[in-house]
């Protein structure tokens, strides 16, 4: 039987090289063509069959010679963010204005390392493993999981697992919680229509800036006064654009923001709540206010059975004393869109020096590369633990 720990450790240098390649060559959502090619070239060299899906995605298959019909899907997102990297590492992004600032370069790397190790385990495998290289996780309006979840290869999966590198968790630690782990991540636009005019004659205008300001303050009362304080919830206005000069009251304003919660019932209430507040502000300020609400990924909620398996696997890799119940995250994750039972593990990637643990989406984001082999080992140990359950 293959020694997963030894084989994972032996991959360390190759994993670092792969990760640095992907980090230096990031591509934004739905533009991951070079990334797709690199993934396919690696799989070709291993002799692992795959299909290209969803424009820039890849799904590979490692079928055990003794597979009994069960299928496990392992997913990695592959896109980068529109962020200009400010660190000075040798493998700094070569694509101006684009950076792997959320660690997806490590996710690709760990899934490719998993592919290599599973190929070695092929003779002993009793399940089939689908490796999902998914594009466009960061594209909230039309994310990759929304399309990939309906691919025939994905619909065959009995369960799905994934991991997310997390720079605030120290390297060598991991978190695999029961229940909600990441928030729903919806967005919204408010379009405020007033009547422009001279800044010195406000009585002749209908001021969209005043209306927008009142709207921002009114929205804050939704969380503080209408929702249970024991339920985590966020409504944030993140952009307010109006006007062009100092002596003209503009005719329009545009506000953008995000609404987040772990509770699906609260999420369902958000559009009505925002629309009711907007209607009230519009009446009070004589403006017209249009709301466009955009559902993003739902809350990521770990399935109990999937977590049970994952915790046994994680104990073998990290040790029970290094398993945390890391706090729930208000960030969104489109892994939630997949319909099979699933779970997401947070993999600690934080440096020993606290000052180097820049958060996700920071232009200085980086991780301790020693954890790459731990991610590969976790995925492969999960395969083994799942095999024991379904035999």
UniProtKB/TrEMBL annotation:
The Mn(2+) ion enhances activity. GO terms for biological process: diaminopimelate biosynthetic process. Gene3D superfamilies: 3.30.70.360, Zn peptidases. Keywords: Hydrolase, Manganese, Metal-binding. GO terms for molecular function: metal ion binding; N-acetyldiaminopimelate deacetylase activity. Mn(2+) binds at residues 102, 104, 138, 164, 361. It holds the Pfam family M20_dimer. Transmembrane segments: none annotated. Residues 187-266 form the Peptidase M20 dimerisation domain. Its cofactor is Mn(2+). InterPro entries: Amidohydrolase, Bact_exopeptidase_dim_dom, Peptidase_M20, Peptidase_M20_dimer. PANTHER family: METALLOPEPTIDASE, PUTATIVE (AFU_ORTHOLOGUE AFUA_6G09600)-RELATED, PEPTIDASE M20 FAMILY MEMBER. This is Amidohydrolase. The lineage of its organism: Bacteria, Bacillati, Bacillota, Clostridia, Lachnospirales.
């Amino acid at each position: 039987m293959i020694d997963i720990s030894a084989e994972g450790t032996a991959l360390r240098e190759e994993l670092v090289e792969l990760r640095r390649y992907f980090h230096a060559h990031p591509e934004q959502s739905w533009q991951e063509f070079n990334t797709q090619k690199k993934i396919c070239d690696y799989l070709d060299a291993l002799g692992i069959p795959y299909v290209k899906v969803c424009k820039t995605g890849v799904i590979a298959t490692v079928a055990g010679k003794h597979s009994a019909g069960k299928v496990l899907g392992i997913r990695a997102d592959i896109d980068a963010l529109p962020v200009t990297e400010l660190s000075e590492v040798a493998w700094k992004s070569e694509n101006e204005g684009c950076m792997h600032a959320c660690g997806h370069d490590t996710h690709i790397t760990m899934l490719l390392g998993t592919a290599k190790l599973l190929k070695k385990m092929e003779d002993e495998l009793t399940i089939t493993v689908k490796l999902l290289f998914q594009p466009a996780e960061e594209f909230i309006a039309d994310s990759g999981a929304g399309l990939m979840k309906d691919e025939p290869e994905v619909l065959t999966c009995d369960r799905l697992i994934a991991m997310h590198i997390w720079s605030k968790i120290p390297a060598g630690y991991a978190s695999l919680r029961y229940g909600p782990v990441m928030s729903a991540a919806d967005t919204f636009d408010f379009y405020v229509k007033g009547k422009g005019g001279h800044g010195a004659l406000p009585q002749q205008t209908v001021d969209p800036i005043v209306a927008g300001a009142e709207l921002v303050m009114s929205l804050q009362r939704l969380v503080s006064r209408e929702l249970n304080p024991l339920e985590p919830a966020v409504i944030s206005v993140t952009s307010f654009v109006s006007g062009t000069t100092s002596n003209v009251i503009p005719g329009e304003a545009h506000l953008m923001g995000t609404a987040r919660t772990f509770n699906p019932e609260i999420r369902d209430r958000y559009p009505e709540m925002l629309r009711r507040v907007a209607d009230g502000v519009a009446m009070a300020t004589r403006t017209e206010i249009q709301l466009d609400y955009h559902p993003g990924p739902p809350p990521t909620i770990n399935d109990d059975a999937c977590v049970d398996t994952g915790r046994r696997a994680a104990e073998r890799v990290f040790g029970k004393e290094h398993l945390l119940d890391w706090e729930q995250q208000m960030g969104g994750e489109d892994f939630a869109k997949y319909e099979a039972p699933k779970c997401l593990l947070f993999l600690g990637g934080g440096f020993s020096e606290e000052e180097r643990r820049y958060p996700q989406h920071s232009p200085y984001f980086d991780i301790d590369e020693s954890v790459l082999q731990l991610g590969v080992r976790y995925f492969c140990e999960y395969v083994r633990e799942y095999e024991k359950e379904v035999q």
